[in-house]
User: Which sequence fits this backbone?
C-alpha cells in the first residue's frame, strides 16, 4: 500500500484477515500461529515489524447432506464446505413399500484432520410420524456406541462417530404404516455428544406416500387341516380382508386338486360351481362374486369333501405334496394393479374302509334274455341259467384285502365249477343252495364267470339270489361294512310233455273177430298235477289212430268228443277232456281188426296192426308251445286169410290246358290188402301214353327204372311202398303245343317168388288237353348292339315274329313299339291297323333346339316314338323288313349302348289276350360335333369366305339403322351350341367380333383394357390396324358369354362415316365334343349409318405442342402399355413348358422403367435371367431371385428388355401343387408404366391366359 501516514493508518485499521477454513490450534498443532511481517519504507529507509497471530478453535456444527434439495450456490453452510441448503425436496415412495434413505450423510468440519477428532462421537436422531424406521442389518449397526433415549419403530437415536453414522444411514429404510398413504415427515438431528445442546443441525424432509391398491387376502390361523375320507369337513376359520374395499365388488376363486367344495351360507354372493380336470386331477372350483362383507360371511363356512374313495395315504400324486390335497384361494378386487393374492390351504385326508362294490349279474350272452337289465336273471324251467358279470371291487384297492362272499338261493341250486384260489366256508364247487367262500378279489372275480343257477325240478316262478360281501385286511384287521345285493331270478314255465304208462309190454294179441282191451294204458302231465281242473282250464286233446282196425269208444257224454259221431267205432278220432277223463276213456276203450283185413301165412309176425295214441296238452302251461306225446300199442294176430291186390286210379276224365302238367297226387296208388306180405314182394309197373310223357317223383330212392322214353313209355320195378311213393309225386306232361284226348295205360305185375303164377292188374286213365292261345316269339339275327352316328338314319331289319301255334302267319298280333330317344319308321303299313301313334319330335321340342319349324318337323312326322299296331304275323314281319330308326336331332349316347327300342307283342285268340312277349334293341349313337349358332333377329349367317365388296353388293333382308358419330347398343343376342350337355352352359367357345367401317366395344367391361371380367371369361380388346380387323376376342363358357357380354355390345361408326357398316361375329367351338374337329360359324349384321351434318374443325398435327392465344402449352396424355399373349397354353402335367409368344409394348415409355408382374393360381413359374452388364437388363424385385420357382414373379425392366423375361418364362404343375389332368390354370400378366411420360399418371395393363394341364 502507498499513501501518507493518515491513509495508511486508516487502511491498516480496516485490514481483515481470513484464515484457512476450519484452521485452528487443536486440529493443526504447530501450524496454528500465523506470522505477520510489516515493512514501512520511506526515502530509501525501511522499518520491519513482526507479530504472531494465534487462531483459536471454534466448534463447527455438523452438516447433514440431503440427496434432493434446493441450494444457493453463492452461499455456504456454517462449515464453509457445503453449499447453502434452502429447502429439502420431498421423498416419494409407494404404500406398504420399503424405501432406502439413500443419499443421506453427515459431515463434521471439526473431525477431518486430527486423529483424536475422528473419534468424536455424534448423537443422531431420526423420527417419523406415520411410518417405521429400520436401521438395516447388524453389520451396519455393530459400530454404534450406544442408543440414546427410548427407542421405537418411529424414532431411532444413537451415539456413533461420523463413519459409523454414515454407514448406518446407507442401510436405513423407511416404510409407511400398513395401508397408510399421504404425507409424512422425516426429522434428522445431529449434534456433538460431548456438548449436548451445543452446535447441531436439524432438517425436516417431507415424505409423500403414494396410495396403492391393496389386494384382498385370506387370513387364517393355520393352513393345515385334516379330514376323513368321504366325510365332509367344515372349515370355519377363513377370513377375507381388504383394507381398500368398502362396497366394491370382489371375486374369490377356491379350487381343489381332488376334493369337492361347497358353501353352507352362500347368501348375498354370486356362486359358480364347476369341475376342474387337469393332468389326471379331478377337482372342483367355486367362484364367488360380491362385496367384502358378503363374501367374508360366505367363506366363514366352507365344506370340503374328499374325492370319492380318495385319501392321502393310498393316492399320492407325484407332485411333492406328500398326499395332501390343496385348496388354492385366489382373491381379487378386479383392479389392474396389485389386484389379487393367492392363499394355499393343505388338507390331509385320512383313509377309511370303503364297502365292497358288487356289480350285479345279468343273463349270459347266449341267452335270449341277454339284453335284459342288469340285476336280473331269467331262464326256463329245468334249465341252467348262467349268471354273467357278477364281480366285486373296492375303491380302497383289491390287491391286499381278503374278500368273503356269501351266495344263497331258495328254489334252486348254485354251481361254481371254478374253485381255484378259493377257500369254501360253506358248500363246495359241486353246488348247493348256499355258498360261502373267501379269496382274493382277483380269484373270486375269476371264478364268478362259472356261476350257474339251476331251479328245482319242475319249479317256475320268482326266486332271488342274495349276494353278501365283506373285505378284511389281514394286516390291519380292518373290516369293511357288509355289502349285499338282491338279484331277482325269474324262472319261466316250460310246457312239459305228458308221459305215457303202457304197462309191462306194448305188444298184445288179437284175434280176427274179437275185440282186444287196452286197459293199463294211461298218461300223466306234471304241469297239471297240482291244478284244480274244475277252477282252471286244463283240457287236452287225445288223438286215436288205428291201423288195420277200428277202436270202439265207451258211451260218454257228447261234449267229450271233438266231433259229433253217429257211431262209436272209428279208425281215427280226436277227443278232448281233462287228463282224468281221457285216462278213464282209454281204460274202457277196445280195438278190433277191420272187416277187410286179411292175414297171410308167409308172415310170421306183423307190426302194421297197431293203435297209436297221441296226447296234445295244447301248450297252455308255460312256454314252448304244445307238447305232444305218443305211444303205440302193437297187436299180434293169431289167425290168417288172403286177398288180391288192386290199382286205384281216377275214374272220371281228367282235363288240363295245353303246355301244362297234371299232377296225380294221391289219386294214383297201388292197393294190396295183404300189406304184410306185399312188403316182401316186388312189382313191375308199366305206363304208356301217346302224346306226352309220364313223369315220376324224383325224390324216391330204390325204384329200378327199366325203361323211360317218350315213345315206349315207362317201366319201373320196386317194392309196394316204393312204387306208391313214386306214384304219389307223378304227373302227366303233354307234348309242346299239343292238345286233344289222351289215354294212359297202366299195368302192374306182382313178381312173387313163392308162387308160380303172377298176378297182373291193368287199367287206364283218360285225359283231355284243352287248346291255349300262345304268345308270339321274337327272333333277332344279331346279338351285338347296333351303332350309328348322330343325326343319321339306321336300318333295323334283323327282327321278326314267329307264331308257336303254326297257323301259317295268319295269327293276329298286337305290337307295341316304344322309342327312348328318337323314332322309327315302318317300311309299310299294309294290312296293319294303327291303334295309337306319337311323333318322335314335337314342334315345341324343335323350337327349343332353335330349329325353325318346316321341313324338319314335317320329316319327323314319318317317325314315331310310340306306336301300337295290330295285324297278322306275316304283315307285321313285312313292315319290319325295312324299318328305319332316326334319333332325335343332335342326340347321342356318347358311344354307349342304350336300350333305344322296346317291342312288345300280344297274341289275340278270339276276344282274349295272352301274356305279352318283349324284346329290346340297344343302339349306340356316336357323337358328331355340331357348329355353334348365333340366335338373333338381325344377324344373318355368312359363308366363311367373304370380301367387303361382296358384303356391300349383297341384298340384305334385315338390317338396323344408326346415326353418324352416335354410339348404339346392339340387340341382345344368344349363342347356342347343340353339343352343350343338357343345357349346362359349361361348353367353351371362342368368339371373334369384327367391324367394317365401325368399332365394337362392350358395356360388360369396367374399362376398355379389362381382360378378365369373370373367372370363366377372357376378353382381349384389340385395336386393329385395318378397317376389317378383329376388335374383340372372347373366350369363355357358353353361359358366361350369354349372361352379359353378348347382350351389351356397343356399335360406333367410323369417324365421319356414313353408309353401310358390317358387324361380323365368328364363333368357334374349339372341337370340344364329338367327331368332326373344330367348327366355325360366321354371322353378319348390316348397319345403315345415316349421315349427320358435322361442324368444321381445325386439325393440328398429332403430338405437337401448340401455343394458343393465352400462351399455354398442351401436353399429350400418357398412353397405356399393351400386352400381346395367346389366349390358351397347354402344359403336360409334371413337366416344365415354355410360355412363349408374350410381348410388351409401350410407345411413349422410351427407356422408362416398367413394373412387370407374372402370377398363376395353382402351378409354379420360373425365369432365368442372364447376368446384367453395365446395369442393363431386367431386375428381379422382392422375393424373386434368378431361377426362383414361385407362383408370383416381379421385375423392373424397360419395354425393350422385357423380352428377355418372356424368352425364359416356364410353367409347371404337378401333384405337389394340387394339380391333375384336365385342370385349368390361369396366367396373369400385369404391367405398370409408372407414369414417367405424358400426363394422366401411371397407366396399367392386365391380361390373363388360360393354361390347360393335359
Assistant:
Amino acid at each position: 500500500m502507498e499513501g501518507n501516514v493518515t491513509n495508511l493508518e486508516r487502511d491498516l485499521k480496516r485490514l481483515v484477515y481470513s484464515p484457512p477454513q476450519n484452521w485452528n490450534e487443536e486440529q493443526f498443532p504447530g501450524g496454528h500461529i500465523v506470522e505477520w511481517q510489516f515493512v514501512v519504507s520511506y526515502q530509501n529507509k525501511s522499518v520491519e515489524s513482526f507479530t504472531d497471530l494465534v487462531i483459536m478453535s471454534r466448534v463447527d456444527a455438523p452438516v447433514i447432506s440431503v440427496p434432493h434439495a434446493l441450494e444457493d450456490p453463492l452461499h455456504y453452510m456454517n462449515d464453509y464446505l457445503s453449499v447453502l441448503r434452502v429447502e429439502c425436496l420431498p421423498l416419494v415412495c409407494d404404500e406398504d413399500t420399503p424405501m432406502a434413505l439413500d443419499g443421506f450423510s453427515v459431515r463434521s468440519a471439526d473431525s477431518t484432520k486430527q486423529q483424536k477428532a475422528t473419534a468424536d462421537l455424534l448423537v443422531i436422531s431420526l423420527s417419523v410420524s406415520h411410518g417405521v424406521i429400520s436401521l438395516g442389518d447388524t453389520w451396519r449397526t455393530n459400530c454404534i456406541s450406544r442408543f440414546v433415549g427410548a427407542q421405537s419403530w418411529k424414532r431411532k437415536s444413537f451415539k456413533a462417530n461420523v463413519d459409523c453414522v454414515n454407514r448406518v444411514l446407507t442401510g436405513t429404510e423407511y416404510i409407511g404404516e400398513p395401508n397408510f398413504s399421504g404425507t409424512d415427515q422425516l426429522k434428522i438431528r445431529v449434534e456433538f455428544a460431548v456438548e449436548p445442546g451445543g452446535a447441531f443441525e436439524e432438517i425436516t424432509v417431507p415424505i409423500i406416500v403414494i396410495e396403492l391398491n391393496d389386494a384382498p387376502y385370506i387370513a387364517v390361523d393355520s393352513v393345515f387341516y385334516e379330514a376323513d375320507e368321504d366325510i365332509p369337513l367344515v372349515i370355519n376359520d377363513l377370513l377375507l380382508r381388504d383394507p381398500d374395499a368398502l362396497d366394491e365388488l370382489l371375486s374369490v376363486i377356491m379350487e381343489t386338486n381332488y376334493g369337492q367344495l361347497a358353501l353352507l351360507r352362500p347368501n348375498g354372493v354370486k356362486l359358480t360351481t364347476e369341475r376342474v380336470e387337469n393332468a389326471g386331477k379331478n377337482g372342483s372350483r367355486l367362484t364367488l362374486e360380491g362385496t367384502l362383507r358378503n363374501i367374508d360371511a360366505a367363506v366363514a363356512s366352507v365344506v370340503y369333501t374328499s374325492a370319492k374313495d380318495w385319501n392321502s395315504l393310498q393316492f399320492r400324486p407325484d407332485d411333492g405334496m406328500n398326499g395332501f390335497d390343496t385348496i388354492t384361494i385366489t382373491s381379487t378386487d378386479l383392479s389392474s394393479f396389485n389386484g389379487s393374492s393367492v392363499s394355499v390351504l393343505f388338507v390331509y385326508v385320512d383313509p377309511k374302509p370303503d364297502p365292497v362294490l358288487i356289480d350285479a349279474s345279468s343273463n349270459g350272452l347266449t341267452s335270449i334274455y341277454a339284453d335284459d337289465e342288469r340285476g336280473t336273471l331269467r331262464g326256463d324251467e329245468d334249465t341252467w341259467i348262467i349268471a354273467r358279470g357278477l364281480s366285486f371291487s373296492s375303491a380302497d384297492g383289491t390287491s391286499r384285502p381278503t374278500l368273503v362272499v356269501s351266495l344263497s338261493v331258495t328254489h334252486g341250486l348254485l354251481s361254481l365249477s371254478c374253485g381255484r384260489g378259493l377257500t369254501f366256508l360253506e358248500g363246495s364247487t359241486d353246488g348247493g343252495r348256499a355258498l360261502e367262500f373267501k379269496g382274493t378279489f382277483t380269484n373270486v372275480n375269476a371264478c364268478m364267470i362259472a356261476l350257474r343257477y339251476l331251479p328245482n325240478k319242475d319249479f317256475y316262478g320268482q326266486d332271488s339270489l342274495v349276494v353278501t360281501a365283506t373285505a378284511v385286511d389281514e394286516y390291519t384287521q380292518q373290516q369293511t361294512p357288509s355289502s349285499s345285493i338282491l338279484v331277482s331270478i325269474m324262472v319261466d314255465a316250460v310246457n312239459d310233455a305228458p308221459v305215457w304208462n303202457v304197462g309191462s309190454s306194448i305188444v298184445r294179441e288179437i284175434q280176427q273177430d274179437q275185440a282186444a282191451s287196452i286197459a293199463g294204458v294211461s298218461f300223466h302231465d306234471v304241469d297239471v298235477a297240482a291244478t284244480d281242473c274244475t277252477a282252471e282250464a286244463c283240457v287236452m286233446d287225445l288223438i286215436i289212430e288205428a291201423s288195420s282196425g277200428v277202436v270202439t269208444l265207451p258211451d260218454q257224454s257228447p261234449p267229450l268228443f271233438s266231433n259229433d259221431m253217429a257211431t262209436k267205432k272209428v279208425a281215427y278220432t280226436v277227443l278232448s277232456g281233462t287228463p282224468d277223463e281221457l285216462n278213464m276213456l282209454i281204460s274202457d276203450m277196445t280195438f278190433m281188426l277191420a272187416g277187410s283185413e286179411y292175414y297171410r301165412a308167409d308172415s310170421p309176425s306183423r307190426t302194421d296192426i297197431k293203435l297209436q295214441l297221441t296226447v296234445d296238452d295244447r301248450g297252455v302251461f308255460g312256454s314252448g308251445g304244445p307238447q305232444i306225446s305218443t305211444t303205440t300199442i302193437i297187436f299180434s294176430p293169431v289167425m290168417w286169410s288172403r286177398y288180391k291186390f288192386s290199382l286205384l286210379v281216377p275214374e272220371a276224365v281228367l282235363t288240363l290246358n295245353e303246355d301244362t302238367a297234371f299232377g296225380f297226387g294221391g289219386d294214383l296208388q297201388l292197393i294190396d290188402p295183404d300189406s304184410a306180405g306185399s312188403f316182401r314182394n316186388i312189382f313191375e309197373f308199366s305206363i304208356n301214353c301217346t302224346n306226352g310223357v309220364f313223369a315220376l317223383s324224383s325224390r324216391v330212392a330204390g325204384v329200378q327204372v327199366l325203361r323211360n322214353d317218350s315213345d315206349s313209355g315207362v317201366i319201373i320195378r320196386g317194392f309196394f311202398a316204393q312204387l306208391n311213393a313214386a306214384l304219389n309225386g307223378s304227373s302227366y306232361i303233354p307234348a309242346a303245343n299239343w292238345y286233344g284226348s289222351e289215354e294212359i295205360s297202366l299195368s302192374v305185375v306182382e313178381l312173387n317168388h313163392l308162387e308160380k303164377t303172377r298176378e297182373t292188374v291193368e287199367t287206364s286213365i283218360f285225359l283231355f288237353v284243352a287248346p291255349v292261345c300262345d304268345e308270339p316269339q321274337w327272333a333277332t339275327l344279331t346279338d351285338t348292339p347296333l351303332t350309328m352316328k348322330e343325326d343319321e338314319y339306321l336300318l333295323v331289319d334283323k327282327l321278326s315274329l314267329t307264331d308257336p301255334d303254326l297257323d301259317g302267319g295268319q295269327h293276329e298280333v298286337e305290337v307295341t313299339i316304344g322309342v327312348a330317344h328318337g323314332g322309327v319308321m315302318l317300311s309299310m303299313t299294309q294290312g296293319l291297323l294303327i291303334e295309337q301313334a306319337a311323333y318322335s319330335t314335337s314342334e315345341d321340342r324343335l323350337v327349343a333346339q332353335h330349329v325353325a319349324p318346316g321341313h324338319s318337323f314335317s320329316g319327323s312326322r314319318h317317325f314315331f316314338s310310340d306306336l301300337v299296331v295290330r295285324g297278322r304275323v306275316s304283315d307285321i314281319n313285312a313292315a319290319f323288313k325295312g324299318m328305319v330308326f332316326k334319333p332325335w336331332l343332335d342326340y347321342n349316347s356318347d358311344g354307349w349302348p342304350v336300350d333305344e327300342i322296346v317291342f312288345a307283342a300280344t297274341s289275340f285268340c278270339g276276344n282274349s289276350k295272352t301274356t305279352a312277349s318283349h324284346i329290346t334293341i340297344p343302339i349306340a349313337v356316336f357323337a358328331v360335333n355340331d357348329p355353334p349358332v348365333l340366335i338373333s333377329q338381325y344377324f344373318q349367317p355368312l359363308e366363311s369366305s367373304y370380301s367387303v365388296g361382296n358384303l356391300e353388293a349383297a341384298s340384305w333382308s334385315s338390317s338396323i339403322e344408326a346415326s353418324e358419330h352416335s354410339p348404339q347398343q346392339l340387340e341382345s343376342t344368344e349363342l347356342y351350341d347343340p353339343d352343350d350337355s343338357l343345357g349346362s352352359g359349361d361348353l367353351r367357345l371362342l368368339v371373334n367380333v369384327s367391324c367394317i367401317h365401325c368399332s365394337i366395344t362392350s358395356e360388360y367391361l369396367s374399362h376398355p383394357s379389362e381382360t378378365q371380367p369373370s373367372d370363366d371369361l377372357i376378353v382381349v380388346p384389340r385395336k386393329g390396324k385395318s378397317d376389317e380387323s378383329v376388335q374383340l376376342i372372347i373366350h369363355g363358357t357358353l353361359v358366361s358369354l350369354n349372361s352379359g357380354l353378348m347382350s351389351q355390345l356397343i356399335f360406333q361408326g367410323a369417324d365421319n362415316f356414313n353408309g353401310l357398316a358390317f358387324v361380323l361375329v365368328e364363333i368357334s367351338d374349339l372341337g370340344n365334343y364329338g367327331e368332326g374337329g373344330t367348327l366355325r360359324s360366321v354371322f353378319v349384321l348390316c348397319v345403315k349409318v345415316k349421315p349427320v351434318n358435322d361442324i368444321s374443325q381445325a386439325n393440328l398435327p398429332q403430338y405437337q405442342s401448340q401455343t394458343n392465344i393465352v400462351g399455354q402449352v398442351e401436353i399429350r396424355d400418357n398412353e397405356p402399355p399393351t400386352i400381346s399373349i395367346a389366349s390358351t397354353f397347354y402344359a403336360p402335367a409334371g413337366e416344365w413348358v415354355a410360355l412363349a409368344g408374350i410381348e410388351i409394348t409401350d410407345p411413349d415409355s422410351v427407356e422408362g422403367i416398367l413394373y412387370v408382374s407374372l402370377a398363376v393360381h395353382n402351378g409354379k413359374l420360373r425365369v432365368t435371367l442372364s447376368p446384367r452388364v453395365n446395369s442393363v437388363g431386367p431386375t428381379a424385385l422382392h422375393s424373386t431371385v434368378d431361377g426362383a420357382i414361385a407362383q408370383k414373379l416381379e421385375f423392373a425392366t424397360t419395354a425393350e428388355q422385357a423380352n428377355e423375361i418372356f424368352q425364359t418364362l416356364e410353367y409347371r404343375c404337378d401333384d405337389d401343387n394340387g394339380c391333375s389332368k384336365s385342370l385349368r390354370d390361369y396366367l396373369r400378366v400385369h404391367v405398370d408404366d409408372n407414369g414417367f411420360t405424358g400426363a394422366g399418371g401411371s397407366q396399367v395393363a392386365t391380361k390373363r391366359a388360360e393354361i390347360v394341364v393335359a
About this structure: The first helix runs from residue 5 to 13. DSSP finds 14 helices and 95 strands in the chain. The chain has a mean pLDDT of 81. The radius of gyration is 64 Å.
